[in-house]
């Protein structure tokens, strides 16, 4: 099962950034866009607030980014919502009497750590503003099709 926490958290931040001039942005509105429950959106927003990426006052439907979108990286968002920081996980339940079953977990763990490091380095280069810009461009394409 794929973990969509980073995608959902990024969606929340982009939604809030693009609706910053709106009187209020309720978790129920964001939930409709995400096709999820408002309680999940509130949990995500809580994590983003703890990571100092979002300012929100309980009971007030006016969340705002805690800093400029150019200063928020995808890596910060990932670290804010990821409980386990592994993009890939090695199956440790292999047959230890089999030479391959014994070796594969250690071999894959080495490669997976390299992949994790490379992915996090790339995430550090991508800002929320990059994602906002790309989202706006896609919105224009979508609107032109309608």
TrEMBL record:
A single GO molecular function term of this UniProt record: DNA-binding transcription factor activity
GO cellular component term of the entry, any: cytosol
Pfam families (UniProt xref): Rrf2
Gene3D superfamilies: Winged helix-like DNA-binding domain superfamily/Winged helix DNA-binding domain
Protein name (record): Uncharacterized protein
């Amino acid at each position: 099962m794929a973990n969509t926490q980073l995608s959902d958290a990024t969606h929340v931040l982009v939604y809030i950034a693009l609706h910053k001039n709106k009187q209020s942005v309720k978790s129920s509105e964001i939930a409709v866009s995400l096709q999820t429950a408002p309680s999940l959106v509130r949990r995500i927003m809580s994590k983003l607030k703890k990571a100092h990426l979002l300012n929100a006052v309980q009971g007030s439907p006016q969340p705002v980014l805690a800093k400029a979108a150019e200063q928020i990286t995808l890596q910060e968002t990932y670290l804010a919502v990821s409980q386990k920081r592994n993009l890939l996980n090695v199956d440790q339940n292999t047959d230890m009497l089999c030479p391959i079953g014994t070796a594969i977990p250690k071999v894959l763990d080495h490669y997976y750590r390299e992949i994790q490091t490379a992915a996090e380095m790339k995430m550090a280069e991508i800002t929320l503003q990059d994602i906002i810009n790309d989202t706006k461009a896609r919105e224009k394409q979508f609107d032109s099709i309608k």
